[in-house]
Amino acid sequence: MFVLVGSMLTGCAGAPTESAGKGATAAGFPVEATSCGHVSTVKAPPQAAITLNQGATEVALALGLEQRLAGTAYLDDAIAPRFAGAYAKVKVLAAEYPSHEAVLAEEPDFVYGSYASAFADESAGTREELQGLGIGSYLSPFGCPDARDRAEVGFESVWQEIHAVADVFGVPERAARIESDQRATVEELAEVGAGRGTRVFWYDSGDKTALAGAGEGGPQVILDAVGATNVFGGLDGGWADVSWERVVKAEPDVIVVADASWSSAAEKIAHLRKDPVLKRLRAVRDDRFITVAYSESTPGVRLVDGAQQVSDRLIALGRP
User: Which DSSP symbol is given to 193?
Assistant: First the structure.
């Protein structure tokens, strides 16, 4: 669970401006940012933050915080085109995680990560260690190391994270605009219902077995949003290893293929088309594939983009 405690609430007047510097007194501060059981007291809007993992980076960019970032690291796939210009202005510290020393060299005042691994000793350092150095931190509630602390994946919890980060940076009105725009998109997708009557297999990665989108993660949220049926939606967790025999038995109408730097959509589609059994699946035979960027299938500011992409492609493919 995560909460923000302070006198500043979303949409309140007197939010600090971009010109507020380090150590400046800002209306509504200090703010206590709590995530995954850790509390960071933020005395003023961060001006030299570091984002680790693509989800955190794109939330920051969606909030227009690129001028407040001292560095960033660790992408899963390509930055969304609408964020590319802003991303180009931010220093990339490493292809994956920078070392603790590399993080400290940038003299950050805040570190924001999507996964608990961002705060390992060999990366940014523990949140307690950073706190001892006067550096605030925030870990996405979807990445808490203790499962009991993790937020349930959904659009509402994504918006809550965006609001929490916006409050830390003193820009609550920007989070409100993002939520309003995305909520309107979700409502429109539900009305269109492009996936009604369509059974979908969400193929994330794997060749010996398939890592499939299960019933409690981003893929399920997206498929629910478009009205489609997840053939493995009855499995626990966000992702589940399933045998190819189960995929064949499920005979999906459409296969959604995740595109990530470590497992491209092209590689997975080639595997399905080459396998003597899998190539007989109706969805493979009829080329009923939908490619979705991995970053649009995980809880974050682009989860709505993933739902829109799936909806658009389902409409283009037509009913099964």
Answer: -
Residue 42 has a pLDDT of 95
Q: Mean pLDDT across the chain, nearest whole number?
A: 92
d(CA 255, CA 258): 10
Contact status, residue 43 vs residue 50, Cβ threshold 8 Å: no
HSE-up (13 A, CA, CB side) for residue 117: 6
Would you tell me how many other CB atoms lie within 10 Å of the CB of residue 25? 10
Q: Would you state the pLDDT for residue 248?
A: 98
Task: Specify whether the CB–CB gap between 260 and 76 falls below 8 A.
Answer: yes
Distance CA 126, CA 115 (A): 12
Rounded to a whole number, what is the distance in angstroms from the first to the last CA of the chain? 41
> Average pLDDT, stretch 276-287?
97
Length, in residues, of the chain: 320
Maximum alpha-carbon separation in the chain: 67
CB 51 within 8 A of CB 113: yes
Share of the chain above pLDDT 90, in %: 89
CA–CA dist 59, 244 (Å, integer): 36
- Res 320: pLDDT: 79
Return the residue matching tokens 């699946």: 281
